[in-house]
Amino acid sequence: MSTVAPSAVGAMRSPGEATRANNEVRLSVEQVSYAYSPNPTQAPLFTLEASSFQARAGEIVAILGPNASGKSTLLKLIAGTLEPLSGKVLLNGFPTHSLTARTRAQRIAMVQQESQLLFPARAWEFVLQGRHPHGRALRFESATDIAVARNALAQVGAAQLSDRWMAELSGGEKQRVILARALAQQPLLLLLDEPTLHLDIAAQVDLLHGLRHLAVENRYTVVVVTHELNLAGEYADQVVLIQRGRCLRVGPPGVVYQRELLEQVFQTPLSVELGPSGRPRVNVVADRESR
Questions:
Q1: Backbone phi, then psi, for 118, in 5-degree steps?
Q2: All domains of the chain, ordered by start, with CATH?
Q3: What is the predicted pLDDT for the residue at 138?
Q4: What is the pLDDT of residue 106?
Q5: For residues 30 and 216, what is the distance between their CA atoms, to the nearest angstrom?
Q6: Pairwise CA distance, residues 61 & 65, whole Å
Q7: Can you list the residues of the chain whose pLDDT is less than 70?
Q8: Which residues are registered as beta bridge partners of 223?
Q9: Which residue in 95, 62, 106, 98 sits closest to 227, CA to CA?
Q10: Helix (H, G, I), strand (E, B) or coil at 240
Q11: Residue 77, Cβ density class (10 Å: 0-12 exposed, 13-18 middle, ≥19 buried)
Q12: Beta-bridge partner residues of 54
């Protein structure tokens, strides 16, 4: 398959064009709200209040908050699988909820908390499913599709897993293959819902480090839902902090990670300090008097 590397694309532009392309807003979440209600005559069971942020190509945005705060709801609104009660989500200027299912799948890849296997598959076959939005009805995968799938596995460092059965993979290995399937869609926007939930610490760090590399090299816009404070602080360009359906603050981790605010959200005594990388690190304080 003949491809043009992202760096080569940038080289073909003038410096001014490349700068404008890098600064263009790709994802715009504008005063988006939503309400879950059993029926129109009853009060909502949960309300996500108006939330706003923007993201560019190559950026990672972490939606951060405790359980049941509205993180996954916001992610579904971004994905276009829910229609906002008010406001809008724009991907390159187009409302995500109004895209056709096929177009949405070509532009947006979602990695869910759990990806069920409907039938036994080897890793490369599983990744090949990501090519379906780009295919024509009633046809077999092309040589290009297979090459894209193989390349996606290589991008996440899982080429050696290609012929392994999915059911035989460890949690970390399986998460890499699931991510590779999302990359095979060749999306503009990559969404991940609690991708580190069942991983050990080493696998969590490995996954987020890989996402950081993929975002920069392939110019993906990445949105990650998480409650992992230190992973978000280390790898995200922006943090969207929400609690009980309210968007409390948006900005770089160093701006959002204020001790009093985080203690309010997570209901736990905390300390915030700068780590070796210059990014904030959060620790639980067992005794408030020792802080």
A1: -80, -25
A2: 6-254 (3.40.50.300)
A3: 46
A4: 92
A5: 25
A6: 13
A7: 1-22, 43, 114-118, 136-140, 287-291
A8: 61, 191
A9: 62
A10: strand
A11: buried
A12: 28
